[in-house]
Amino acid sequence: MAELKLKKTKIEEKVVGTYQKIEDTVVGTYQKIEDTVVGTYQKIEDKFVEKFLEEGEESDKSQE
Question: Which of 16 and 54 is assigned the larger pLDDT?
Fold first, then answer.
């Protein structure tokens, strides 16, 4: 029996193209949000280390 294949229609191509644009937008937006959140966390972490951990080393030296 011969193998049957469906031809791609213009509507199908437009739907797939539109879906791909939506997917790219969603993924791009998620990536921007993730980068912002991670960047903000790193800034907070750096400030914490700067404020509390480095000062702790100085106070340890003064106790000796």
Answer: 16
Dihedral sign, Cα of residue 3, residue 9, residue 12, residue 14 = positive
**Strands (E) located in the chain:** none
The DSSP secondary-structure symbol of 22 reads H
Range of the domain at 32: 22-58
1 domain-assigned: no
Task: Encode burial over 28-50: b for 16+ CB neighbours within 10 A, e otherwise.
Answer: eeeeeeeeeeeeeeeeeeeeeee
Rounded to two decimals, what is the model's pTM?
A: 0.59
Q: Is residue 45 part of a domain?
A: yes
Q: How many domains does the chain have?
A: 1
Q: In the chain, how many H helices and how many E strands? A: 2, 0
